Amino acid sequence: xxxxxxxxxxxxxxxxxxxxxxxxxxxxxxxxxxxxxxxxxxxxxxxxxxxxxxxxxxxxxxxxxxxxxxxxxxxxxxxxxxxxxxxx
Length: 88
Ligand SMILES: [Zn+2]
Prior knowledge:
The chain has about 90 residues and is mostly helical. The protein contains 4 helices and no strands.
């Protein structure tokens, strides 16, 4: 099964919590292997989880997930198409 980025974002917290079933986890890992955006999202989310694990008084604001998704959607729109800027 091929996952879209949005599906992967929904699975990332479960991925980090290790609550996904084996097949879903495999699908997510396959997507992450070739998607820089989702890899970045995974890193960011993992960093947030580490912060929250270290400091229990830190709480994510309500709506955080929705805003994260909106920001990601915006970021995807802003990703420039591949160019050959490496040539002088
Ligand atoms: Zn992706």
